[in-house]
Specification:
Beta-Lactamase, Rossmann fold, 2 domains, 16 strands, globular
Length: 428
């Protein structure tokens, strides 16, 4: 067994100037706790909230949770898909911190009985970064969740998503189609938007009219017409879609198909000369066919409009700075489809919990995929109303790599672990 582990130096903390993170990257859990706790004792809620946002962006957190408790305010960050405690504030500071965030987000600080939505547009780390804020009442006071929108300048290229060579080749071929629908499917937080943006970024050429319809607009992209829906004023996805179809589009990205009306308009657009890229909530590629059926789209329209379905999940990656290698045991061999001889010659990798990885053994995430091109044989099966089981069996027989197959490859390549594979796939 070999071990490679790095250490984190303690973070220095002071009120002015702001302390800078130390150690690898942006400092880690214990250093961040000490830094924020010390700052909370000497400054007001303004600098504390500013520093919390700054550190959250540096850690690549996706969300900040401010949860009221009986004795104060619990502050957590979602990093690599999991929440981590970073601070406990006393009751005396709770209302001030909540009010500070609500003021930044343009929310009514006097309204505490009803849920509200807000938006912070702030310059963080020399980039324009947006924060979506939601509030809701609880028995101990107002709860806030801050969604940290991606850095508009940090695009993930298609070849960086985690697709293997065969999947990438299929997807690139489908993106060259002049019309039809390409769907990215999965649960909330599975990376669908990142994949959609990567596809749109690849297609963003001067000779094409590219439009996105989103709620909200997550990344501002030069050369693309971006529309943000506003359901409160009656401008939802269906209304925006109808408007865009009158504007001579070549490519449309629809943030999400949420209802039958949006589904019908998007399918018709795909049949009438527009390449439509959109996301859908479904467990896997095949089950998305049933979701479209439930939206009332005739099987003939589904078969003729859908070109390709990409299902995905996000897996945490083994920490590159703190990890060890080992030989798989019997249970892991069975899970990975290995025999005894293969197990003797294979070394798997698992993380070693350390400050540098929030004591999880993981750092960063990668994606696993199912990429299902809809060929003529699948179209015929969809038209005659074949069941999910029959469609899945046909897709696998034609070479579709399932999410489980993709995850096993990542484990055998040393990118992630069997525990992480089971955590993600068993929860869906």
């Amino acid at each position: 067994m070999s071990t490679d582990q790095s250490e984190l130096k303690p973070a220095e903390s002071s009120a002015t100037p702001r302390p800078q993170p130390s150690g690898s990257g942006a400092g880690r859990q214990r250093a961040l706790q000490a830094e924020l706790t010390e700052l909370a004792e000497v400054v007001g809620p303004g600098p504390l909230v500013d520093l919390l946002l700054e550190r959250a962006f540096q850690l690549n957190a996706t969300d900040i949770h401010l949860d009221p408790t009986a004795d104060g305010l619990r502050v957590r960050l979602r990093v690599d898909g999991l929440l981590h405690d970073v601070l406990r504030l006393p009751t005396a500071l709770r209302s001030n911190v909540v009010s500070r965030v609500k003021l930044l987000a343009g929310m009514d600080i006097t309204e505490r009985r009803h849920a509200q939505d807000g938006h912070i547009s702030n310059s963080a780390l020399k980039h324009e970064r947006d924060v979506r804020v939601g509030s809701s009442p609880s028995i101990y006071g107002e709860r806030l969740v801050l969604r940290l929108m991606p850095d508009a300048s940090a695009f993930t290229k298609l070849d960086e998503l985690g697709l293997d060579d065969d999947q990438s080749e299929i997807l690139l071929k489908q993106l060259r189609q002049p019309y039809g629908m390409l769907l990215t499917v999965g649960p909330v937080g599975s990376g669908k938007s990142t994949t959609s943006y990567s596809c749109v970024h690849l297609l963003n050429e001067p000779d094409r009219s590219v439009t996105t319809i989103e709620d909200p607009v997550e990344r501002r992209v030069e050369g693309i017409n971006q529309i943000q829906v506003e359901p409160k004023i009656g401008f939802g996805f269906p209304e925006a879609l109808r408007g865009v179809l009158r504007m001579d589009p070549n490519i449309m990205m629809v943030g999400e198909i949420r209802d039958p009306e949006t589904a019908h308009i998007a399918a018709r657009a795909g049949l009438t000369g527009v390449l439509v890229i959109s996301s859908l909530h479904a467990n896997d590629a095949i089950s998305s066919i049933d979701v479209l059926r439930e939206f009332g789209i005739p099987p003939m329209f589904i078969a003729d409009s859908v070109n390709c379905i990409v299902s995905q999940r996000l897996l945490r990656k083994v920490c590159p700075q703190s990890h060890e290698t080992y030989h798989p045991d019997g249970a892991e061999c069975e899970l990975l489809g290995l025999n005894y001889e293969e197990a003797e010659n294979i070394e798997l990798v698992r993380g070693v919990p350390a400050e540098v990885n929030f004591h999880t053994g993981y750092a960063g995430r990668t994606a696993i995929f199912e990429v299902l091109p809809i060929d003529e044989e699948l179209r015929k099966s969809i038209r005659r109303g074949a069941s999910q089981g029959d469609l899945r069996e046909l897709a696998i027989s034609k070479g579709m790599q399932t999410l489980e197959m993709s995850a096993r490859k990542k484990v055998l390549a040393g990118e992630t672990t069997t525990e992480e594979m089971l955590r993600v796939l068993m929860s869906t």
